[in-house]
Design goal:
The complex is a heterotrimer of chains A (427), B (253) and C (483).
Chain A (H helix, E strand, L loop, with lengths): L4 E2 L3 H13 L4 H17 L1 E2 L42 E6 L2 E3 L12 E4 L16 H9 L3 E6 L9 E7 L6 E3 L2 E6 L4 E10 L5 E3 L2 E6 L4 E9 L5 E10 L4 E8 L4 E10 L5 E10 L4 E10 L5 E10 L4 E10 L6 E11 L5 E10 L4 E10 L3 H9 L4 H18 L4 H16 L3
Parallel strand pairs in A: 3-7, 6-9, 7-10, 8-11, 9-12, 10-13, 11-14, 12-14, 13-15, 14-16, 15-17, 16-18, 17-19, 18-20, 19-21, 20-22, 21-23
Antiparallel strand pairs in A: 1-2, 3-4, 5-6
Helix pairs in contact in A: 2-3, 4-5, 5-6
Chain B lengths: L1 E10 L4 E10 L4 E5 L6 H9 L4 E12 L2 E4 L5 H7 L1 E4 L6 E5 H15 L7 H14 L10 E2 L5 H15 L3 E5 L7 H14 L5 E6 L12 E6 L2 E6 L1 H10 L2 H4 L3
Helix pairs in contact in B: 4-5, 5-6
Chain C lengths: L26 E3 L6 H10 L4 H15 L23 E3 L14 H9 L13 E7 L2 E5 L2 H6 L3 E4 H7 L1 H7 L10 H9 L4 E5 L8 E7 L10 E6 L4 E9 L6 E4 L2 E6 L4 E8 L11 E12 L5 E8 L4 E4 L2 E4 L5 E10 L4 E10 L5 E11 L3 E10 L7 E11 L4 E10 L5 E11 L1 H8 L5 H17 L4 H19 L1
Parallel strand pairs in C: 3-7, 6-8, 7-9, 8-11, 9-12, 10-13, 11-13, 12-14, 13-15, 13-16, 14-17, 15-18, 16-18, 17-19, 18-20, 19-21, 20-22, 21-23
Antiparallel strand pairs in C: 1-2, 3-4, 5-6
Helix pairs in contact in C: 1-2, 2-7, 5-6, 9-10
The chains are: A alpha/beta (427), B alpha/beta (253), C alpha/beta (483).
Amino acid sequence: MKTRFVGLGEGYAALFNAQRGGVLDPPWLAGRRDDAFARLQQSGLPTRHVEEWKYTDISFLAGQTPAAPVGDAVAVDPARLPMWHEDDLNIVLVDGRLQQELSPALESGLLEWARLGDLGKNPETTPVAAHPAALLHAAFVHDGVLVRIPANAQLARRVHILLLHASLTPHALLAPWVAIFAGANSQARVVITAYSLSDAACLHLPRVMVSADSESNLAISQAQLLNTQSWQLATSRVELQRDAHVAHLEAGLGAALARHDLTAVLLESGARVELNGLYALDGKRHADFHTLIEHRQPNCSSRQVYKGILAGKAAGVFNGAVRVFPGASGTDGYQLNKALLMSREAQMFSKPELLIDNDDVKCSHGATIGQINPQELFYLQSRGIPEAQARHMLARGFVEDIMFQQGDDRLRADLDGALDRYFAAHE
Amino acid sequence: MLRIKKLKARVKDGPEILHGITLTVNAGEIHAIMGPNGSGKSTLARILAGHPDYEVTGGDVHFQVNGEWQDLLGMEPHERAKAGVFLAFQYPVDVAGVSNVTFLLAAYNAIRRARKEPEADAFEFRELLVEKAALIDLDPSYLDRAVNLDFSGGEKKRNEILQMAVLEPTLAVLDETDSGLDVDSLRIVAEGVNRLHAAHRAVLMITHYQRMLNYITPQFVHIMMDGRLVRSGDAQLAHEVENRGYDWLKETA
Amino acid sequence: MANKIQTEQLQQRGREYKYGFETVIEQDTFPKGLNEDIVRAISQRKGEPDYLLEFRLKAYRWWAQQPAPTWAAVEFPPIDFQDIRYFSAPKSMARPVNEAGEVDPILVRTFQRLGIPLREQERLTGVAVDAVFDSVSVGTTHQKMLAEHGIIFCSFSEAARNHPELVQKYLGSVVPPTDNFYAALNSAVFSDGSFVYIPKGVKCPIDLSTYFRINARETGQFERTLIIADVGAEVSYVEGCTAPARPENQLHAAIVELIALDDATIKYSTVQNWYGGDAAGRGGIYNFVVKRGRCAGKRSKISWTQVEAGAAITWKYPSVVLLGDDSVGEFYSVALTNNQMQADTGTKMIHIGKNTRSTIVAKGISCDQSKNSYRGLVRIAPGAENARNYSQCDSMLVGDKAAANTFPYLEVSNPSAIVEHEATTSRISAEQLFYLQSRGLDTEAAVSLLVNGFCKDVFKTLPLEYMVEAVNMLELKLEHSIG
């Protein structure tokens, strides 16, 4: 028989018990934590024989001994971070803990906010999913921040939430929680950056919850810039109310193994969501993007474009599902997924899914996987550009449009910088 | 050519929308029916074409085919088309997978068969289509695209006029063909209608606005309110409505 | 199939299924249940050589250890494999027959009703037919003429006895007995089916076909088809299938293996019209089939075309393993589901050789409360230089209770590959139908226009006479669902 799940090693129970004693959880959180860990111990971690994990093996994590991020850490000087901008509304979490002294935005008066541990009830509207990343997060979440954008507010400044990994402890388990609640008719841009200051491998388990109230307009960007030893299992949920609009962009540029399960739920009619993604992988790195868009009500639209560059022995996975519920007539769903293979041993696995339970829909998806067009390469070379540079120019051109999607020049410049470093490593 | 008598109708299992319409249209005439939104204008147009969502609850409609009066309401939608009735849809439907030319050739030949005329082959039909498309300023590339799929609003309306020009009906019913059109499209559509118009044909225009009537001059204008024709007159009536709105007619209704 | 036959005397169950009648004939039927004795008894009944019995027993022992798979997007209660009969044959078929003249007249009449004349003087000229009734082949036409070209076309049982070297070499070479649960089941209990061998350089002068008829109650049909096209050979093969309309479900678990050597071409077409159950979802065939071809030779080509319009549940993925350099795989499919039918079907294109190309065109039409899923895999192995794949998967929904799913898997491990996949959904609505009617097309012509528009890329790959049959079959079912 094929082994579908492997049991969690004892290190997890030890860490769980140690952490549970040290945290002053409100009752709802303690109950949720215990429940999640019990379920996790029951299920274990999936192997590749589980359909949802067909292309991504996380079962090796079960045998590891995760650690609390205590002891040595790299000193944090945010101003020296490559994506730091002084005039953003900056909120900093270090190793999964909110750092108020580094987060002047909290005192700006422009936002309402709360610490996870201070919340009287669970702000998440859905129970913890039977998903290893969601369960791990719920069991080990230590701290987090809820940011509320007041109704009708038009935030001129960006909100930048930095999830910094500073611990030098190997296998530090970090489970930060971020919730963005946008009030009705509000408008804001939020960037969430995961960044490693440390060279040690960590297990990063972030959870991001976005709730867009009616007629709000949000641009949410998630940049993952962990060091290339670390593993990330991220889950995000975006909920949209009537006529809300969320443009979501993710950039997967770090980590040895990164999996992100992103669910967008169109809860009321007229909501629009865009999910865009770009990733650049090399070495033996592995990135897996699972997106699910749920069209639950009529006349909603979703648009999704993911593009990736794969070099070395890297492997990319894109599994994007669009699900149209029976009542969701007038649905407009579009999905495109493109990958560029830059080397002989790179691999791409793509699984775009449509699940349609309504006949009044307009849904389509497309996927292409290929290499750089040799004619284009030759053309550039014939104009005197060396091959390596020409390949990088073409690869950058391949993902360029994604970076423009948020209309955020600062973000685009920062991602450009990260891509510069990616290409520089190959020259 | 068309005799509507005391026509009453409703949406299936819904409330009555038409409360007794009487209207006669003779060959060579152009009639316009105007009225506020929800007055039942489009319902009348769709019932004439045999739309399955509606149910006739009273009255009758007769249509003259080769000089003989026939019961229009007893005919299937395709039989009405073969008899010479054409409805230009307010919201033309898109049909994925079926090209404009394939669709129109099938319709053209179905109608020609019914009229006992020789069928056209694909080559000569394409020539005919290209010629007609040029008249309404529709790029020939549209002929090979799926029917109405991803057409703009104006292109859809022009495609309706193309179909009308090809199928050569004796009675053209235009259901708000002017709505959503820019000035150029409006002019092209109106020219298409005027070109078709002849002594043995008639046109019944359903419209909300008077602006279409700047290009096509009706001999008769009827005002419909709450499922009844409350006033009839000549083109002057349309101008009056344009200036005064519909409310003043309410009292007379 | 090309000949329309009189059907008014047939028991009818719904306008859209005219093949639902049952033939009353004395049958030799095994008791219910499956064990090693049953497997041995099947082998003995067919007078098989020992190697086949060993093949069956090995498969049976592996199968007995396996749980039934559940991963497809279809729902049905667990099958009780001990409640099925694994062999049933007309008593009159106790001895093998070669030419149709010797066949029991009742069977001849049955196939006549299905549009398959078996008698020498009536048989179809452009196509040779192997007629399979429950567990046995009852006759194969045109054998003599084909033999003059060196072509072997016979029932599987005959091939096992008369051409053991070919059967032993190729049986299970594409679909190993332990490939999966239903492949193992079939390998243990397969009863009959067709065998085709086209020798080097021969282009088969006529279409070959097999007609599968399920008749006996509570009996499963487990046929096996093996087609080998030797170097430079070409063949076009067509299968058709029907079953009586009954309120209980019946299992059909077949295996088809195709082997194309250097420069060989095999075109395999299916027009599947098993009984699909009634509007309440009662009855119909469970159609769980493993179909796979191996482009073993350089420049070889295997092309699958399927028009699937019946069966309560369809679960199958006609696939091609592109082993030879420059080989070509194709999959063209129309799957129509109506009433409460469920289909999870698609293909696998496994690119291993260099410069291999594959094309997938899959059209799903879901009507009423049915569920129609496309599931397909395109795998480009590391050594498959310059592989190309293009997939187009379109769904059409008819009615707001129908469901359509698309599950493509693209796995690319070679940078020189170009893999492209596109999918769309659309619908046939009452409004659309009215629009077409208002332009002079009657319901039939309007539906036909819509179906042909949606499926033309698949229809045009069918042999002409089958295309007419397939189009009529789909139009009839669709008119029923729309009207």
